[in-house]
Design brief:
The protein is an alpha+beta fold. The protein has 3 domains: about 80 residues, OB fold (Dihydrolipoamide Acetyltransferase, E2P), CATH 2.40.50.100; about 70 residues, E3-binding domain (Dihydrolipoamide Transferase), CATH 4.10.320; about 200 residues, Chloramphenicol Acetyltransferase (2-Layer Sandwich), CATH 3.30.559. Helices cover about 25% and strands about 20% of the residues. It is built from 9 helices and 19 strands. A hairpin with a 4-residue loop joins strand 4 and strand 5. Helix 7 crosses helix 8 and helix 7 packs across helix 9. The chain is elongated, with a radius of gyration of 26 Å.
Length: about 450
């Protein structure tokens, strides 16, 4: 029997696990190559997973409703179409997938761990040939189980496994730790660990080495309190925000922008845009202007990677979308190549698919700069956290009518006037972006928006 694996796929950067929403095929049913086999749900996207090859489903390893790490084997397909004798056996913890070699990189970028891996859940592989004594351990556990054992100094060979063929499950290792390790603790010697060999250290290991893992403090529960576990999107957001704030020294600069010119353009072109089936929001104007300025400020469109600086070759702008609750940041790729109408249409499309959970993995990756708009909910100004892997984020406040002093162009006298104004904040990584850089960028942005060009 030629049996191949169906693993939990990688569905985007920072996504480390997925939930089996629905099996579209049952054990014994045949499938064609690329035919949908199951539906999965992550904290960011829902998707149908196709069969990697034609054959017969001979084993389902993960039941509907279960959440497993990326790479976990969820099913097996017999490409010769033969049903195995034990195909009707109940699902058990998946056998470990063959782990890929750590990605080679000239610059170890702590802001760019391998796709779909986070600071506290990534497990880099090592050269199997260099650690032959661990073969038995690897066949008795999954990567997540081995990681938990390593973190708690547990010799996994001393843990009784209740899984298939004596495999140590996640519950086995957690129960072992909870009961005090049963007096069978055998700390892992760091000197003999394969991770101590530089040749086997991956980017995620470097991230953990440099910046540590995210640990949230515990607090007492009082009478009348309600305690709920974090869902995936909240947990990952919490981890990413802690790491981003810990790594980058944040500084914020603010500026006030007049939207009088943009209001005039929106009024003059409203009917034309409606005929084109689109609507151009204030955010579209901001994205268009920012995308034209970022090439002038490569450090703001870059990132720090170890002791090097990466100046991004493209302008990909992430737009924060409120999911209520939760937040997701779909990305407008090559935003500097889009017209104003194309930009506005793209924003509407991404926001709509974000709220209906129909974004693809590519829609949420490779951002080089981000924009968040707390002003849509009435906030005057926000001081957002810089997403890791980038150097800056723009926060746009509420656009409100305010009484301001303006100077008459002819007479030079001051006059009180009512104008629509908004406060913008630029949060930037002070390792790469200086205050003067920020000031110049915001001044240029203000100038473009207040004298917005026609016919863009």
């Amino acid at each position: 029997m030629a049996r191949i694996e169906v693993p939990m796929p990688q569905m985007g950067e920072s996504i480390t696990e997925g939930t089996i929403s629905k099996w579209l095929k049952a054990v014994g049913q045949s499938v064609e190559r690329d035919e949908p086999v199951l539906e999965i749900s992550t904290d960011k996207v829902d998707a149908e997973i196709p069969a990697p090859a034609a054959g017969t489903i001979v084993s389902i390893e993960v039941e509907e409703g279960e959440t497993v790490e990326v790479g976990t084997i969820v099913a097996y397909i017999d490409t010769e179409g033969v049903l195995s004798d034990n195909s009707s056996a109940p699902a058990v913890e998946a056998a470990p997938a063959a782990e890929p070699e750590p990605p080679a990189a000239k610059i170890p970028d702590p802001f760019a761990p391998p796709a779909g891996r986070t600071v506290d859940s990534a497990t880099e592989s090592v050269d199997e040939g260099s650690v032959p004594t661990e073969d038995g351990v690897r066949t008795r556990s999954t990567p997540v189980v081995r990681r938990i054992a390593e973190e708690h100094g547990v010799d996994i060979t001393r843990v009784a496994g209740t899984g298939h063929a004596g495999r140590v499950t996640k519950q086995d290792i957690l129960s072992y730790i909870e009961v005090g390790k049963g007096g069978e603790v055998a700390p892992v010697a760091a000197a003999t660990s394969p991770r101590s060999t530089p040749a086997h250290i991956g980017v995620s290991d470097l991230w953990k080495t440099f910046y540590g893992q995210v640990q949230h403090p515990e607090f007492p529960v009082r009478e009348g309190d309600r305690v709920e576990p974090m869902n995936n999107i909240r947990r990952l957001t919490a981890e990413h925000m802690v790491v981003a704030k810990r790594v980058a020294p944040h500084v914020h600069s603010l500026i006030e922008v007049d939207f009088t010119a943009i209001d005039r353009i929106r009024k003059d072109n409203k009917e034309q845009w409606q005929e084109q089936g689109t609507r151009i929001s204030y955010t579209a104007f901001v994205v268009w202007a920012v995308s034209r300025l970022l090439p002038e400020f490569p450090q703001i469109n870059g990132t720090v990677a170890g002791n090097s600086i990466i100046y991004r070759g493209s302008v990909n702008i992430g737009i924060a979308v409120d999911l209520d609750p939760g937040l997701i940041v779909p990305v407008i790729r090559d935003a500097d190549h889009l017209s104003l109408v194309e930009t506005g249409t793209k924003i509407i499309d991404l926001a709509g698919r974000a709220r209906s959970r129909k974004l693809s993995p590519d829609d949420i990756q490779a951002s080089t700069f981000s924009i968040t708009n707390p002003g849509v909910l009435g906030t005057l100004v926000g001081l957002p956290i810089i997403p890791k892997g980038t150097a800056a984020i723009l926060g746009t406040g509420a656009i409100e009518k305010r009484v301001v002093v303006i100077e008459d162009d002819v007479s030079g006298t001051d006059t009180m006037a009512i104008r629509k104004r908004s406060i913008f904040s630029l949060g930037y990584d002070h390792r790469l972006v200086d205050g003067a850089d920020s000031a110049r960028f915001l001044a240029r942005l203000k100038g473009v928006l207040e004298a917005f060009p026609e016919n863009v």
